[in-house]
Specification:
EC number: 2.1.1.-
Protein name: Class I SAM-dependent methyltransferase
Largest sheet: 8 strands, mixed
Distance between the termini: 48 Å
Bound molecules: zinc ion
Number of strands: 14
CATH class of one domain: Alpha Beta
Organism: Nonomuraea salmonea
Shape: globular
Helix content: 25-40%
Keywords: Methyltransferase, Transferase
CATH architecture of one domain: 3-Layer(aba) Sandwich
GO molecular function, one term: methyltransferase activity
Amino acid sequence: MVKRWLGRLAYGSRYDDVPWGQRVYVRPGERLAREAQWRLLTRRAPIVSRAAYERTRSLGEIEEFLDCMMCGESRQQPLFEPNGGKGWRYHVVRCPSCGFLYRNPNVRPERLGDLYATGYSNFLTGKYAANRQRRYDLTMRAFSPVFDEGKERRLLDFGSGVGLFLELAEQRGFDAYGVDLSPESVAQANERLSRARTFFGAPQDVPEIAAGGFDVITLWSVLAHLPRPLDDFRLFRSLLGPGGVLLILTVNANSLLLKAYGSQWSGFTKNHLMFYSPRTVRTLLRRTGFAGVAFAPHYGDTIEAGTTRLPAGLVSRLRRNVRLSDGGNMMRVLAFADEEAIGRYGGGPLTVHRLTS
Ligand SMILES: [Zn+2]
């Protein structure tokens, strides 16, 4: 209430028509104010030892306590407590050494299936489906020409759900495969697809996939769900052939919206486990053997699809603030397996950052 009143005082009613998800990017001065607010929060929040932290939290049946997986730091900086009303609640800590944000306690990997046992495929279809496919298309366009032509290229969609992306991939000519943890999603996907195939389980259990040699691996809104990201990424790296690339779409832990809304941030969903920023995703890729990385700033689907109702002046202000803060709400990452991949795609509009270990 007080915040709303302060907003009214500072900006009047000028931005009332701008959706909440875009307001922080277009109101003058707000980017700098939110960034200062974040620095203050992370400087002031107490840092505790893991033992002290464990004493303050109860551990659910499917949960475990973690150290930071990106750098090994055991100290914890408790920051957020997202909740979905009555249904769920968890704790998010920040690593005081590298800034990684993760749920702690986290979910034990062998119990991950519990989160997706029933009903998840219903969430993945319906209205969600059309928006998803638009988002896949916009993301591939942002990295053009890497995904323009699929002929004679092997593609693995990890966490393929009901096959919405595989459908686009087979249309583009990719020799496409998927894996997923939900058996009912896999069944639905295989009904939808004509040439592409999805499988239930882990990549190493499926001979067609374990054979490797992939040109492309995609992770659409999957990264935040992985309880053992280093193991998974070492596997992805080994499944990629020479010149291979890995595409990631995930929520951005450096989002200006997280800095503005804290525990109420839209990226803190029920099944998300870890939250990466451009900085921490680099660490993950470097430690698992990737040679380089490029980012495509995320301005939001309506802006990129050209369907937004924002006036042109505000659109350019939004774009500028996303770029200056590295703070779009989603993060789009293209990882290069080796020098051959960098050589093949790095010359165009993409800025490639080399990852040296
Ligand atoms: Zn860390």
